[in-house]
């Protein structure tokens, strides 16, 4: 093949891919009998446990709820602003973001696009003041990350652990920051529990955590537990295999969040004591509220949306099978259950009913509703 | 000679082809004035650093510290603007850029340490400072400075930077010496040029550009957090390569490379969002488009020596 042909082939290949991407995007056509609402979702990625669960849930509900959801991903504030600009240009009616800032609100105000934050409440007073002055700010949803951090420490303490190492990603991720604070504050409450080491520089790269665990084991033979702010992206396997390498499986107990495949083995081995997860329906409730408000079927009367949900916690081997069956391998809320609390589909329902449904989330609750 | 002219035109042609392709696929959505402003706003930071990086790439160097430097400048800018105002903040970020340029250039050139090692080391130092300073909370910029986040202000800054850098690069000995160093450093030194001094100067110019970009990036982001400036160095590197800059340095270096490459990156990213593409596919397709663009546009000379 001549050089010119190779170059031509390279260009044609790129265009073929572009067209294939477009066809995927255009396949998301409206089939619902309500006004179509276009929502942009700014996450951090869709390959980790939680991000993948968000994507799967949106794929499940979008068409049924008359939503066209565009998922985009970025990690820095600068990227988030650029993504918000692009989503607005793409014609979305509302944006769900996990790190709302004042410039993002300004962009939405100018474009007449609604904005909500998922994952955590607004903690910065300056940002909150700017959001309060906007007609397009709708509110937040959060799961209690701070409390989940405390729960991790509590479980470790009750299991007899007293010398704990804490692992977390670098400060700046609102959810992980709250978990970290919860861990530290709870540990400080126990007079006979010591945080013997902490590592918070992580980019959440699994290898980084693995190395740190081995370092801590070498430095602190008395170490008996680890609290880690997140188990996604291979971190769970990395930390536990590092403990296995140094012969500490079952001796050092781990407490963390983000239940995933293989968790059952670790729970049975005794190396994993506590794990929480299953918080992914949070964004679905937020998206439903946003669509209801945009369609005009829900009037919040000037009140901000403030959804609060729960993690589902697994301690020891209890509950894992049920968690896998009802949360991991199935959707915790089915379409009809969600439509029942959406004013677009059920004019008799209210914000409070949706709030209560999500706020009462637990493994028992899902088992009761979806008994198999 | 004719082939060389065609090759010089290829990156721009690539940009136009990609832009037109997305215009067709998105039904012209990327042609609206507001979207064009968004593309400019998003590419401004990469363009500014790309323009100022011309001297570094012309002499065959590379600066991997600029992501951390941008983050540090964002931090200095936000603290200064909260306490002492815009002008002192601008002066401080420029000074920080100069000091950083002297550090990376001085350590690598006079300490005889490979510049990518120096760059990575400084990047770690900057990131460490940033993490400590912002570990408690996001530091936000006061509302009174949002006027800086307008495309008009950025256009003035960019045109001024392009004019100054273009003049220095084309009409003064600074540009000629940088290209000469990239072509053959030993021969340039034997001709009586202080190659070390001019190499350091190149990093200082880049540092100034990154400092100014950092101030604008902070205003755009609304503040600074530990991730500020992450992967900025890779964005700039990819941009200049896509724009046709030879990483080996020398006479083929052009100021326009950073501009064309930055626009190409942003047009692609913007286009994928406009199309509503699956986010898990986008990175892979972006990578293929980049490599195809470089495959078509890169200058291949036999017997090149990497500086």
Tally of DSSP helical segments of chain A? 15
**What characteristic shape of chain A results from the CA principal axes?**
globular
Task: Outline the biggest β-sheet of chain B.
Answer: 2 strands, antiparallel
Report the uncertain regions of chain B. Answer: 302-307
- What is the CATH class designation of the largest domain in chain A? Alpha Beta
| Oligomerization category of the chains in this entry | heterodimer
Mean pLDDT of chain B: 90
The number of distinct β-strands of chain A equals 12
Alpha-carbon distance between the termini of chain A?
60 Å
Q: Find the count of extended strands of chain B (DSSP E, 2+ residues).
A: 2
> In percent, how much strand structure appears in the residues of chain A?
15-25%
Which structural class should the secondary elements of chain A be placed in? Answer: alpha/beta
Overall domain count of chain A: 2
- What is the correct CATH architecture of the largest domain in chain A? 3-Layer(aba) Sandwich
Our estimate of the beta-strand percent of chain B is under 5%
CATH overall fold name of the largest domain in chain A: Rossmann fold
Determine the fraction of residues in helical runs of chain A and give it as a percent range.
40-55%
Mean pLDDT of chain A: 89
Reading the helices and strands of chain B in chain order gives HHHHHHEHHHHEHHH
Radius of gyration of chain B: 19 Å
Distance between the termini of chain B: 25 Å
Subunit structure (chain B): The complex is composed of two ATP-binding proteins (LsrA), two transmembrane proteins (LsrC and LsrD) and a solute-binding protein (LsrB).
Protein name (chain B): Autoinducer 2 import system permease protein LsrC
Keywords (chain B): Cell inner membrane, Cell membrane, Membrane, Transmembrane, Transmembrane helix, Transport
Organism (chain B): Murimonas intestini
